[in-house]
Amino acid sequence: MENKVKVAILGSGNIGTDLMYKILKNPGSLQLSMMSGIDPESEGLARAKSYGLDISAEGINGILQDPDIQIVFDATSAKAHIRHAKLLKEAGKMAIDLTPAAVGPYVVPPANLTAHMEEDNVNLITCGGQATIPLVHAVSRVCKVKYAEMVSTVSSSSAGPGTRQNIDEFTFTTSRGLEVIGGAEKGKAIIILNPADPPILMRNTVYVAYEPGHEDKIVTSIEQVIAEVQQYVPGYRLTRKPIFDVRDTPEGKLPVVILLLEVEGAGDYLPSSAGNLDIMTSSAKRVAEVKASHLLKQALS
Question: Is 143 an active-site residue?
Answer without folding.
Answer: no
